[in-house]
Design goal:
Helix content: 40-55%
Largest sheet: 7 strands, mixed
Oligomer: single chain
Distance between the termini: 23 Å
Shape: globular
């Protein structure tokens, strides 16, 4: 670095010189994100400011513990970052306590279990085939191995959460904790009703808000924070932050949550990620972000409607969030094949089980689409109509190489108009 030149963050030119092999992959991934359609409901594009913090010198600092109570010296500056982030989280969500240290959403969920339960305790959570998450009781996951997880699901007639079943199971099994939240449930959750059930059986109310917390931050949907004992979530979906996790809780649970994270289940936090979370929390407190969150839902509702016009059924009749679950059996193609065909056509989405799916999760009868990323790019109603047509053609004709190539070309024409991370003009 030339004498006198200021340095605050990463130098990509240095990476190209030192490791061109890895640098080429970074560039290729940037081009993939720029050119293809990103419809994975779990993904988004962070701001350049968030990317800058993730690659900053904060990565170098080990900071086991909490601000003012670290196990290492030299934490004066990173203490400031964490305290700023904590206050921003509390202000944004109206929470009594916030912890920004979890490395991921799954890590945050581990901490929730550790704070409120012991191995063998009964936990009530949403069925995986009906939209739940691995950490909600999957047999291959720690949650399914260490806890007695009883699952509730959706009604067959309307594909909405069966609150009568949830209450009946709670009364029967007396769970220590009840979890609401899912990865493939397109409707809103009645948090007040869940709170009533928790109070009736004396259970901790835990909301895994990983998928929809960004919509809460943008005041586009109701918040679980006033009702729940604890809310865990990821920071990289609609929230549009760095990859990581966060936990909000009532003040009476603050000590248990903090202890569960450190030293309970992880050592030093990734301070560059904590800083990135602080940055995005400030971004979310703006009118521009609130408009964005509402637009995400509008776009998803439009996309679900347009896919239905293409002959594919939207589960539960549509969506009230950032994601839609689409039953594609009418096309004669299963979810696995649809996923592969869309991928070859430049469209990133994922296969997904639908409620009461006759296929295995590895095959599935549906796809899941999300509009967080394309909305960040600036796309709107007219683009959703185009995207629905591209998805339909890819699913039905994407086995033909020429058709896939043609669709991919049209995808690239669309995304060129809404480029992410554009190169600076000369």
């Amino acid at each position: 670095m030339p004498r006198g030149e200021k340095y605050y963050g990463p130098d990509f030119n240095a990476l190209e010189r030192q490791d061109p092999e890895i640098a080429s992959v970074v560039i290729s991934e940037l081009e993939r994100q720029r050119h293809d359609l990103q419809l994975i409901a779990s993904e988004n594009f962070t701001s350049s400011a968030v990317l800058a913090t993730m690659g900053s010198t904060l990565s170098n600092k080990y900071a086991e513990g909490y601000p003012g109570k670290r196990y290492y010296g030299g934490c004066e500056e990173v203490d400031k970052v964490e305290l700023i982030g904590i206050q921003r989280a509390k202000d944004l969500f109206g929470a009594e306590h916030a912890n920004l240290q979890p490395h991921s959403g799954a890590s945050a969920n581990v901490a929730v279990y550790q704070a409120f339960t012991k191995p063998g305790d009964t936990v009530l959570a949403m069925s995986l085939p009906h939209g739940g998450h691995l950490t909600h009781g999957a047999k291959v996951n720690f949650s399914g191995k260490w806890f007695n997880v009883v699952s509730y699901g959706v009604r067959q007639d309307n594909e909405l959460i069966d609150y009568d079943q949830l209450r009946d199971l709670a009364l029967e099994h007396k769970p220590k904790m009840i979890c609401s939240g899912a990865t493939a449930y397109p409707s809103l959750i009645d948090f007040e009703k869940v709170r009533q059930i928790c109070d009736e059986v004396g259970a901790i109310m835990w909301v895994d808000a990983a998928h929809f917390i960004g919509l809460v931050a943008g005041k586009a949907i109701p918040s679980p924070v006033p009702y729940a004992d604890v809310v865990s979530f990821t920071t990289h979906k609609v929230l549009r932050g760095p990859r990581g996790g966060m936990i909000l809780s009532k003040e009476k649970h603050a000590a248990a949550i903090d202890k569960a994270i450190f030293p309970g289940m992880q050592g030093g936090p990734i301070m560059s990620a904590v800083a990135g979370k602080a940055v995005v929390l400030k971004e979310c407190a703006t009118a521009a972000y609130q408009n964005y969150a509402k637009k995400v839902i509008e776009n998803c509702q439009a996309l679900a409607s347009d896919l239905q016009k293409e002959g594919m059924r939207a589960v539960s009749g549509g969506t009230q969030t950032h994601l839609a679950l689409i039953d594609i059996r009418s096309t004669g193609v299963n979810g696995k094949v649809a996923d592969e065909r869309c991928g070859k056509s430049g469209i990133s989405l994922n296969k997904n089980s639908i409620p009461f799916d006759p296929e295995s999760p590895a095959v599935s009868s549906g796809i899941r689409v999300g509009t967080a990323a394309v909305t960040t790019q600036g796309m709107g109603r007219e683009e959703m109509k185009v995207i629905a047509g591209l998805i339909s053609r890819a699913i039905k004709n994407g086995d033909d190489e020429n058709q896939a190539k043609e669709i991919r070309s049209e995808v690239h024409q669309l995304t060129k108009r809404f480029s992410v991370y554009p190169e600076p003009s000369i």
